[in-house]
Amino acid sequence: MDIENYIDSLTDIERKHAPKSFFLAGDKRLLFQKRRVSVVGSRNATSEGLRRAQIVTKALVKHDIIVVSGLARGIDTIAHKTAIELRGHTIAVLGTHLDKAYPRQNLDLLELIKEKHLAVSQFPKGYPIQPKNFPMRNRTMALISDATIIIEAGEKSGIRYQGWEALRLGREVYLLENVANDPCLTWAKEMMDYGAQLLSRENIDMVFSDIPYLTSKYQDAF
């Protein structure tokens, strides 16, 4: 399978919200196999946020789910690294072209993902780094994922774009209790009203067992 097959597999609504092009480096089969779940959150993560990201990522790997994230500092980095350390699989969706790591400190991590896992970008080589790239990146993450889990985020976090896009596409969105119950996050309450669900230690195994295959149209092709 190649990227043309992937684009052809999208519904009309998915294709409408998809990037005009994708650039891939690594194991392209990961875009077609298994369930994929985004683990996303703040760049300036707290120690508790990092710990929660590790717990969630470990549970995803346990359920043979591919961990998707955005290679940013904080939550994204710990999600990718935890999946790799546990011998799971991870996909990095970039806000840069494939040869540029942002932040630069994640260059070695990006190279490892390109070699052993999968990196995805919608930006051609040489495309400049701009603030608008990252909300676009989050929308693409929502598209290729069966569900999105928000670990930790602020009121103006770009993560909210991914949550809304996932809901628009009919994907599952899960908010950790610290996000869902934060009175300062007006968007979190609104997302819950529109169908986002609470994820807690008590229901995590049940939730991960029940996440449907929405995007892996070709999971039996290999």
From TrEMBL:
Identification of the protein by name: Smf/DprA SLOG domain-containing protein
One Pfam family this sequence matches: DNA_processg_A
- UniProt domain Smf/DprA SLOG: residue ranges: 5-203
| Record PANTHER family | PROTEIN SMF
Q: Which SUPFAM superfamilies match?
A: MCP/YpsA-like
Among the record's GO biological process terms, what is one?
Answer: DNA-mediated transformation
Q: Which source organism? A: Arenibacter certesii
Q: Which family does it belong to?
A: Belongs to the DprA/Smf family.
Gene3D superfamilies the UniProt entry points to: 3.40.50.450
What InterPro entries does the entry give? DprA, DrpA_SLOG
